[in-house]
């Protein structure tokens, strides 16, 4: 949901530390942007790749890589909070784009249930809790494609505001996610 670090919302500051393995060493401060999971360990899904990699290098006692660095990010690594967020919004907006204009009662129940479970199972626990809070404040609108698409766009913009990102014009959500831009670049 978030596509960037949420360390301040998670109660993690750049001064947070993790205990080290021995009592003679002082705790190492966590790199900025590393979010701790409920278990007290760094959460890969809640932290940016850079922050998590910095922490991993710090824990290994070296910033040396065993493989050469490439300018192309690896596609076979677990997603960081940013990649997870981008993929999530793509999936959710695509679901909205294909949701019926006049859904049956079962389809409405299915969408409500999906969104409820999705908000509980989302890999970034901080993002999941934030989305659950949003859903309590703003009930999922499932009466039809337009209502759900606009609700989802508003939810996405709520996240964008928190992350200091530009808001999307919700009057254009169908053009962006369903029909393609009017200039034909998606055809």
UniProtKB/TrEMBL annotation:
Region (Disordered): 1-38
Biased segments, Low complexity type: 13-27
Keywords for the protein's UniProt record, in alphabetical order: Disulfide bond, FAD, Flavoprotein, Mitochondrion, Oxidoreductase
Predominant localisation class: mitochondrion
Gene3D superfamilies: 4.10.320.60, ERV/ALR sulfhydryl oxidase domain (1.20.120.310)
Domain of life: Eukaryota
Residues of the ERV/ALR sulfhydryl oxidase domain: 77-177
A GO CC term assigned to this protein in UniProt: mitochondrial intermembrane space
Catalysed reaction equations from the record: 2 R'C(R)SH + O2 = R'C(R)S-S(R)CR' + H2O2
Subcellular location: Mitochondrion intermembrane space
GO molecular function annotations of the record: flavin adenine dinucleotide binding; flavin-dependent sulfhydryl oxidase activity
UniProt xrefs under InterPro entries: ALR/ERV, ERV/ALR_sulphydryl_oxid_sf, ERV/ALR_sulphydryl_oxidase
Enzyme class: oxidoreductase
Record-listed E.C. numbers: 1.8.3.2
Cofactor(s) the record lists: FAD
Protein name: Sulfhydryl oxidase
Lineage: Eukaryota, Fungi, Dikarya, Ascomycota, Pezizomycotina
